[in-house]
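Why does residue order matter? Because the sequence determines the fold. Keep that principle in mind as you read this record.
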Amino acid sequence: MNENIAQKMARPAILNLKPYSSAREEFTGNEGIFLDANESPYNKPLNRYPDPFQQKLRERIAELKQVEKGNIILGNGSDETIDMLFRTFCEPGKDKVLSIAPTYGMYKVSAGINGVEYETVLLNEDFSLPVNSILEKATDNTKLLFLCSPNNPTGNRFDDEAMAELLKNFPGLVVVDEAYVDFSGQGSWVNALDKYPNLVVLQTLSKAWGLAAIRLGIAFASADIIQLMMKVKPPYNVNTLTQEKALQSLSEPQITTERVQQIISERDALMQSLEEIPTIKKVFASDANFFLIRLDDPGAMYNHLLQQGIIARDRSREPLCEGCLRISVGTPAQNKYLLEAIKNYSSVKTEDVPASNWTTVADYLVTPERKAVKERKTKETDIRVEINLDGNAKANISTGLGFYDHMLEQIARHSGCDLSIEVKGDLHIDEHHTLEDTAIALGEAFAEALGNKMGIERYGFALPMDDCAAMVLLDFGGRPELVWKARFKREKVGELPTEMFEHIFKSFAVGARCNLYIKAKGKNEHHKIEAIFKALARAIRMAVKREAGSDFLPSTKGML
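Structure:
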């Protein structure tokens, strides 16, 4: 394959195009008084245009995928990267693109928008690639070949040898759309960029990473191809919020890995169960987070599921998919409900489907409240703690110790939890029992409110600044531990002995069955301890955050 395939395939207008130069390209620093881009000086930081080349994000993706940053271009969803390919390489009214059928419908739509003829080749009956037919269909004007692998809607990943043959012999660029590759359990074609100069690989954060709402598509290709696509890319096509959220998620790849493994496990178990149901004629093998099932009357099944509050996708009008519904893999609870609904189906006609029963599915999948009431009565203290992890940061604290009340209020205010604490303690003797028992009861209330911990983030961290720095790292993993790195020069802050603060957090860690790492430095002892409580609250806010309806457990051990 000609190493200058990018230049050979590109539209002449693009080769000669001088791209738009934005203000953020001419000056790339972060410091200064920015009066160069006609931006508003207010509403920082959203008043500033985003990085037009997404440098930090592309560097992080390059690190994860083990490619050079120059091999990456980002788009507002994969739809934009697909459109960039058309505008870079396809002359309207002259060039053609080729794809398979059935497959993802946006290739055809983009071809229509760009005035490019769209041709297809039918897959084999087993959904495999008809390599010879594809190569025979291609002409000198066929600039792009789109192959979705794993394919949508069939769910199968195409054979590597067939793909390699097309890459070697197709006259234009071969675009491999890997939106679902994370669920295939196999490697990515990104690793073959050096071998095939005509290869373009599309990926997304919408599926495995669970970030469909931020709209981030990724294209990988040779530096020659990427440089040409950069010419046609809108100047600020990926907004700042998308870049920030993507970087945040990409900093924790282990979470995505765990979720993908759970989806794969659920997919395999669900498909196996469906194969035992007589009304289902076939369950097609899948390398994606969805699969096809074939029935005699897919319309009736679709409507039956709809009445149970389950929305599937009818693909029966697609070539080779006659009689098929496409089903995405959900949470364990959602999959169980789906399986029960399909088992209860009895070949009813569409017009005989009973009235909607949304209450059933709502009751079945409702996200439980995370509230707890904890009472602790000893000879020294009488304590009642009420907590709502999904509250509105309301606080009602009365321990008899003013500074302690103020610190505990910080937990509610900065974590977002509703917190009520009433304490009667033997303060006429000493503060020790009130401080210790309140911390234990508060920790136990958190543990009870978290319940089975399904869907929580589990980890939290915070580093607020005042005239001091306080860092709190938190893990609701079930193992109580405290690492304490804070010293105080004063004997008391308010009426509280500073020697008791370490004991307070140790007691909380034991009660909540959590791991705490606390480090603080600063000059003002009041601010230092207040910063620790605020940092704990912010860490709690992160760690208890939950994906509604999720049965994902953030642990490879299967328990917390």
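Residues 253-274 form the longest helix (22 residues).
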